Fold this sequence. Notes:
The chain is mostly helical. About 70% of the residues lie in helices and about 0% in strands. The chain is built from six helices and no strands. The protein has helices at about 10-40, 55-75, 85-100, 100-110, 115-135, 140-155. The longest helix is centred in the first third of the chain and has 34 residues, at about 10-40.
Amino acid sequence: MKIQNIDKDTYRKKTNLVMVSFVALLAALAILFGSILIAFFGFEGVTESGSTGNFHLNVLGVILSLIATSFIMNKVKTYPYFDDIMYVWKLKQLHHRIYRKLAAIKTKAEQNDHDSLLILAFYYTTQKQVFILDNNTLTIASVQKSINELYEKAAEINFGIDLNDFNIDLLNKY
């Protein structure tokens, strides 16, 4: 995976629009599906407890709306508009994958393993990028410190780190 430059303002606008659209579509479809199901299969009248007895149909409407919204989002995520959002989403998935192996990677990095240093450099650099895009300013300082320490270590042992050399397959050996 190659690091891309993402404009923070554009990314935030797109992310906010997609989230609001997703929630609005989910709500509208839930009401629509629930209404249709109640119209065809619902009970008329109200019990003494004030219930209409259509709760299960409303829940089914929400489930159907979730399925429909997920299907729609899965189809539109390949549009160019979603490139920035999908890039960050894939980065976050990759971060989780690296994090699960982080102890082993750090152990090998202490032994001056070039691939481990490359993975850590990619991890910390892209983590900083995601934190900036998501306005997570609390931990950027510690990530920057990790980046600085990593590059100092690489310089001490004369390892050149080029983030373009990072490949997801490097994680398979951990």
